[in-house]
Design goal:
This protein is an alpha/beta fold. It has ten helices and 19 strands. The chain is globular, with a radius of gyration of 21 Å. The relative contact order is 0.19.
Length: 436
């Protein structure tokens, strides 16, 4: 039966790659010496390279694959203004005063990407129409009442509560128990945004070495680094680790601090204009408070539903998880029954033990890691701020630049516990939906 949901032209690759698919760049000669070596060519790495170039600091970007091949061109393209950060703050029982600097930084992250796109005329479908966060159960909706004042005050979210009786004004579904409409939020085409960022870095003259994995890092007595690659060794004054959900064995100290989780997404065939309009009357993006999260929005041309979520905890073939996501989608939008899938894909999201993004310096290495599902704006921001820290132009301490980057004695980089976490989350969701 599940085969009926696949379109004859189905592709197990990101829908976004129809507009821009990551590719290997022309070979560049590796320098013998460079001020900064950036490991990882995603949003964070490219943002750091761009900021360094603007300050006259030479750098090189080293990527193990084609730049952008990882999460930067695979996400759902949702851009929040600190709501996700605010939710995590509250879940960790922090006071408003403790949460304030993180939420303020989240505001700056949103402003940064909005300005970057506008000032450089990056054609990436930037659409600032807000997003609707659906309440999985009544208790979740009640909890939103306690959060909304904080995120409006400190994250400038322009958020309002939407009772269940009025949610059809925002989403063509009766699935949720009301929700929260966040005005200061957007969505974009993640691959075209990445291409725009990449083009700026190339224009700035920064060398980008694709298919050049770093397989060794050794700190010298003077504090500089030997960066070993299959193509030779580079001496670097500073090294930035910007590998996020693809952090590997070359940096075990970071591999044990970020947990890669597969996020799965499908794209539907083209919908009629009336059907698409009925799903999202104001072209908003959507997410929900379910622990087994789903997130979705229309494609930039408004013709397809892009639907993502944690279909499985762990790593699986996106073709295998596509029927699960399709079922989740039909649960929310019964009117999409019979709609087929044209694309299914996956990419790694990096979670941290405290559910917060992190930047800083650890064991001599700079890093920007742990997007926790908010990577489009947050990794762009933390990459920029990491570069400013190296240059010395940052005029304040970033809240996410914490002295501690927590780990667990039971975790060393192999996320063996994810299936157990998934089972627990599904159980809690079932209980909440029926009894709360």
């Amino acid at each position: 039966m599940s085969h009926a949901i696949f379109h004859p032209d189905f592709k197990a690759k990101p829908y976004w790659w129809e507009a821009y698919e990551p590719k290997a760049l022309p070979d560049v000669a590796l320098p013998k010496d460079v001020a900064v070596a950036i490991v990882g060519g995603g949003y964070a790495g490219m943002s750091a390279a761009l900021e360094l170039a603007r300050n006259g600091i030479e750098s090189i970007v080293l990527d193990a694959a084609e730049p952008g091949f990882g999460g930067s061109t695979r996400s759902g393209g949702l851009v929040s203004a600190g709501v996700n950060v605010g939710k995590r703050m509250i879940n960790r029982a922090l006071t408003a005063e403790e949460a304030k600097p993180f939420l303020n930084d989240a505001v700056d992250a949103f402003t940064n990407i909005e300005n970057l796109i506008a000032e450089n005329s990056i054609d990436c479908g930037w659409t600032k129409t807000g997003y609707f966060l659906g309440a999985w159960c009544q208790s979740h909706y009640d909890g939103m009442k306690k959060k909304i004042e904080l995120i409006n005050a400190e994250a400038q979210s322009d958020a309002v509560l939407v009772p269940r009786a009025r949610q059809r004004e925002h989403i063509g579904s009766d699935y949720y128990h009301g929700g929260m409409l966040v005005g200061r939020a957007a969505h974009l085409h993640p691959a075209l945004y990445y291409k725009g960022l990449l083009d700026l870095v190339v224009k700035a003259g920064v060398p980008i070495a694709s298919r050049t994995p770093v397989n060794g890092l050794t700190q010298e007595s003077n504090g500089s680094w030997s960066v070993k690659t299959p193509r030779g060794t580079i001496k670097a004054g500073h090294v930035i680790i910007a590998t996020n959900g693809y952090t590997g064995d070359v940096t075990p100290q970071f591999k044990r601090r970020v947990v890669p989780v597969g996020s799965y997404i499908i794209a539907t065939e083209e919908l009629s204009a009336d059907l698409a309009k009925s799903l999202s009357p104001a072209n908003r993006s959507f997410a929900d408070t379910r622990r087994v999260l789903t997130y979705y929005r229309l494609s930039p041309d408004g013709k397809r539903m892009i639907f993502g979520g944690r279909a499985k905890f762990g790593f699986s073939d996106p073709v295998e998880t596509a029927p699960m996501l399709h079922r989740f989608m039909i649960d929310r939008f019964p009117q999409l029954k019979g709609t087929r899938i044209t694309h299914a894909w996956t990419g790694n999201v990096a979670f941290t033990m405290d559910e917060l993004p992190h930047m800083g310096k650890f064991q001599g290495l700079h890093y920007a890691l742990g997007c926790n599902g908010s990577g489009v704006a947050m990794m762009s921001f933390l990459g920029r701020e990491t570069a400013r820290k190296i240059v010395g132009t940052s005029n304040r301490t970033i809240a996410f630049d914490q002295p501690e980057f927590p780990t667990s004695p039971l975790y060393h980089g192999n996320p063996w516990f994810l299936p157990l976490v998934g089972a627990w989350f599904r159980t809690r969701d079932w209980i909440d939906r029926r009894f709360n």
